[in-house]
Design brief:
The chain has 91 residues and is mainly alpha-helical. The protein contains five helices and no strands.
């Protein structure tokens, strides 16, 4: 599964897809142990798909919103007052 396909999915769909892929990975491990697994590259593909799904599930909502909107300018840090500067020297 490609990243473009995952972008359009809702979190619930991603969770279901994650569960399905974990079940497939579980079955592939047993098949490998028994020697009945024909396509060994499927294990690697499944593992990477699981990682890709987790990446999209763990993406913060702010990052998703920021991708849609341009970033707002940041404020400059507050300057220290004369009183705060003198107390820094004493410490």
């Amino acid at each position: 599964m490609k990243a473009e396909d995952l972008k359009t999915k809702t979190p619930d769909e991603l969770k279901k897809l994650l569960l399905d892929n974990k079940k497939a990975q579980f079955n592939q491990r047993f098949q490998k142990t028994n020697g009945s697994l024909e396509n060994t590259s499927g294990i690697r593909k499944t593992r990477r798909t699981i990682a890709r799904i987790n990446t999209f599930l763990n993406a913060k909502p702010e990052e998703k919103a920021a991708a849609k909107k341009p970033a707002a300018p940041k404020k400059a840090p507050a300057k220290k007052t004369a009183k705060a500067k003198s107390s820094d020297k004493a410490a």
